[in-house]
Amino acid sequence: MILIFKLLFFYQTSDSEMIIEGNQVLSIVSLLMLNDYFFYN
After folding, report:
1. Confidence (pLDDT) at 12
2. What's the CA gap between 25 and 6, in Å, rounded?
3. Which of 3, 1, 23, 21 is nearest to 11 (CA)?
4. CA distance 31 to 34
5. How far apart are CA 31 and CA 8, in angstroms?
6. How far apart are CA 28 and CA 8, in angstroms?
7. Angstrom distance (rounded) from CA 5 to CA 34
8. pLDDT tens digit sequence for 8-30
9. Which end of the chain, N or C, is less packed with Cβ atoms under 10 Å?
């Protein structure tokens, strides 16, 4: 879980600030979905 977050963070910091702002929302949603996936399985 932490590794996935680090990968997302690294991907965000390698892009421009405008794209980072959009990816932050997608990353939060993705992390929440992954939490639900691992929790229910």
Report:
1. 54
2. 15
3. 23
4. 5
5. 10
6. 10
7. 11
8. 666 555 555 555 566 677 778 88
9. C
Count of residues for the chain?
Answer: 41
The residue with greater pLDDT, 4 or 32, is 32
Distance of CA 17 to the CA centre of its chain: 15
E-state strands within 1-41: none
Two tokens, residue 30? 């993705």
Structure tokens at 24: 């932050």
- The tokens for 9 are 């963070």
Q: Where are the domains of the chain?
A: 1-40
Contacts of 37 (CB under 8 A, 6+ apart): none
